[in-house]
């Protein structure tokens, strides 16, 4: 018997564990079902509360419309009486303005009361009374205007206007009382709905706390599974470096292929372009000879020279040759730019210590004559970070950005360009800020694309500079971006490592 107690205890422990798991799952299921039910009930309560709010707001609108109508009615009546006593234009104008607004206001009341038959009947009665009042008023106004003041006063004292006005006031009071009754009912319903909503929120809070407690127990239960997953993740991390190296090799190979392709394509494009340029020169020589021939023929035998021949020799052909020369010159510049990018892409980076303040001062010196022409100044902060990077690439990056800043200064104000920098986490962040034309926010990313430019195209260029700058910056392990407001200037931000390390295996 004594030996059987531990065995029974073990069986009870196992049964208790199974019961606990079943209880845990049942509690979670029940909790979620209750939470969903509370959510649905809360949604229903919110919808009901919104409906009551709309009804209360509708009641206030009806009350305000009735009050506005009564004000217009009394003001028009006062103005009418004043006009009878003193036929001044001001009284007549006031009467007509208020009387003209009465029917639109009554239409609004009828529209708002469309859901209440009692109010509809009252509004219809008010309309009939208002028709009578308006007719009496108009008659008295006409009598006064025609000089029959005595008849107007007699008509006023004997007319039905006073009785009709009292009847309208009585109807309006009844309508306001009806809205007060509805407001009381709807306000009470609104309060009940709000109380139910708060009770549902409290219930939902209790359910959330209960589910959170059950979920906490479940999290503890599966903590061991998380440990196993962490171990598997560590195994994946151990092989990550090999995967990155393999991917980098593929990217290097693809980059080399792209550079070779660009060089071959741009080199092969030059051959037909040279032929076009050569034959254009021959066409130009022939055109001049033809023009001379036309001149001589016109001098000796003008009857054989037609207008078409004269126009072709002197205008059409020279203009067409000019267009061809302009297009081939542009094509030649684009091919040269592509060749330049391709050659730069095959150049090996040679890091060396760089004094950035001195390097930027030398760049500014080459632009000094343009700064003097524009009356602009460049300020270089004295505490710029020092880099260990490729001198030629850095000069091209900063030279292009600063030259662009000078090129696109606003002639309407004195140009100011500031260059500053700071260190942050093993990197150098340089900012080149100007007060020039600025760049449209839609073009902030596009200005770095090849052959893409922004704004008015009144400066020379092919849209290659900033694309080259971005390519060089990426190769140096950095990034470049721009912040700008159109018409207020731009700030180019260049982020570079303090020390260049060619971990990618790429060359540029």
From TrEMBL:
Q: Name one GO biological process term.
A: osmosensory signaling via phosphorelay pathway
Has keyword DNA-binding? no
**Annotated catalysed reactions:** ATP + protein L-histidine = ADP + protein N-phospho-L-histidine
Q: Name one Pfam family in it.
A: HATPase_c
Q: Which Gene3D superfamilies match?
A: 1.10.287.130, Histidine kinase-like ATPase, C-terminal domain (3.30.565.10)
Q: Which SMART domains match?
A: HATPase_c, HisKA
Which keywords describe this protein according to UniProt? Coiled coil, Kinase, Membrane, Phosphoprotein, Transferase, Transmembrane, Transmembrane helix
Q: What class of enzyme is it?
A: transferase
* EC numbers: 2.7.13.3
Residues in coiled coil:
226-257
A molecular function annotated in GO for this UniProt entry is: protein kinase activator activity
Where are its TM segments located? 23-43, 196-220
Histidine kinase domain ranges (all copies): 264-500
Report what the protein is called. histidine kinase
Which lineage ranks, top first, belong to the organism behind this chain? Answer: Bacteria, Pseudomonadati, Pseudomonadota, Alphaproteobacteria, Sphingomonadales
């Amino acid at each position: 018997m004594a030996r059987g107690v531990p065995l029974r205890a073990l069986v009870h422990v196992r049964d208790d564990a199974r019961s606990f798991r079943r209880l845990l799952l049942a509690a979670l299921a029940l909790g979620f079902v209750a939470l969903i039910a509370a959510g649905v009930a809360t949604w229903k309560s919110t919808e009901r509360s919104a409906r009551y709010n709309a009804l209360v707001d509708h009641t206030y609108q009806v009350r305000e419309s009735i009050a506005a109508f009564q004000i217009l009615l009394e003001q028009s009546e006062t103005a009418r009486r004043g006009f009878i006593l003193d036929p001044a234009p001001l009284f007549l104008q006031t009467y007509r303005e208020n009387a003209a607004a009465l029917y639109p206001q009554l239409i609004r009341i009828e529209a708002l009361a469309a859901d209440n038959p009692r109010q509809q009947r009252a509004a219809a009665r008010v309309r009939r009374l208002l028709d009578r009042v308006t007719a009496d008023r108009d008659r008295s106004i006409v009598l006064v205007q025609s000089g029959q003041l005595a008849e107007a006063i007699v008509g006023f004292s004997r007319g039905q206007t006073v009785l009709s006005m009292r009847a309208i006031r009585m109807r309006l009071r009844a309508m306001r009382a009806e809205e007060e009754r509805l407001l009381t009912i709807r306000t009470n319903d609104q309060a009940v709905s709000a109380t139910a909503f708060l009770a549902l929120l409290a219930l939902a809070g209790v359910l959330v706390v209960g589910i959170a407690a059950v979920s906490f127990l479940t999290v503890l239960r599966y903590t061991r599974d998380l440990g196993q997953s962490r171990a598997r993740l560590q195994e994946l991390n151990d092989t990550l470096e090999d995967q990155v190296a393999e991917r980098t090799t593929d990217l290097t190979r693809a980059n080399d292929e792209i550079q070779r392709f660009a060089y071959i394509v741009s080199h092969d494009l030059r051959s037909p372009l040279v032929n076009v340029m050569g034959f254009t020169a021959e066409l130009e020589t022939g055109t001049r000879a033809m023009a001379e021939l036309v001149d001589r023929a016109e001098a000796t035998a003008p009857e054989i020279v037609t207008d078409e021949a004269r126009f072709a020799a002197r205008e059409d052909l020279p203009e067409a040759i000019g267009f061809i020369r302009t297009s081939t010159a542009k094509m030649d510049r684009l091919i040269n730019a592509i060749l330049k990018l391709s050659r730069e892409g095959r150049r090996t980076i040679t890091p060396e210590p760089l004094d950035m303040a001195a390097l930027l001062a030398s760049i500014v010196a080459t632009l000094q004559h343009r700064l003097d022409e524009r009356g602009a100044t460049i300020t270089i902060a004295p505490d710029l970070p020092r880099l260990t990077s490729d001198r030629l690439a850095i000069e091209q990056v900063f030279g292009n950005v600063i030259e662009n800043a000078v090129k696109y200064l606003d002639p309407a104000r004195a140009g100011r360009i500031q260059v500053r920098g700071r260190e942050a986490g093993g990197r150098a962040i340089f900012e080149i800020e100007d007060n020039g034309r600025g760049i449209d926010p839609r073009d902030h990313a596009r200005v770095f694309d090849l052959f893409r430019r922004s704004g008015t195209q009144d400066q020379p260029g092919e849209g290659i500079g900033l694309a080259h700058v971005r390519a060089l910056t990426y190769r140096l392990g950095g990034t470049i971006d721009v912040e700008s407001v159109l018409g207020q200037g731009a700030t180019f931000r260049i982020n570079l490592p303090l020390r260049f390390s060619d971990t990618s295996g790429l060359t540029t």
